[in-house]
């Protein structure tokens, strides 16, 4: 007699999918998880344990693909709304995510994957000297991250720090970017940007003004940049 496995009910299948996603984007990176123990330098998978090495390899591949997909989708959402991003054919967050996953995996410890994706997207816009607010980046990342609201990326880290100051993770993306992400990724973000000469600049597009700092821009920085653009356009149309 042939026995066939009955498919899972739709609700159970959806729940399993949610849990796989939740593990990949957050739970696995938390202290105390079995994968966290393998990801840290002191708890790396044993060289003679092929099963552990394969589990770790498959997990990192899945996490990298998820981060790259979200970063590129969020970048595309921003480019659809911000003309200056659409002008730059080199605007691509995947390389920033690749560097983070390859060289700075520790940035993800005790964090939600999407917070670091937001840092990658914002850092890439800063690399291209494009002015965009972190709030807008958070909204774009949240729109491609199920079960994650913009408030989860902009929450105040001080409340968590007050209850557990030693180990409290930074939950505010602006603070996380300035204090943790940027110091680690500065070398990559400062690398020269090679423009794509095959793509002509849109009519009326403005040339870049002098490079602003890679740190998170304040409202004052953004207003100064807008004034500089307005002055440049006024001169161009005289």
UniProtKB/TrEMBL annotation:
Superkingdom, natural source: Eukaryota
InterPro entries: Cyclin-like_sf
Positions of region (Disordered): 145-165
Amino acid composition bias (Low complexity), ranges on this chain: 155-165
Record protein name field: G9988 protein
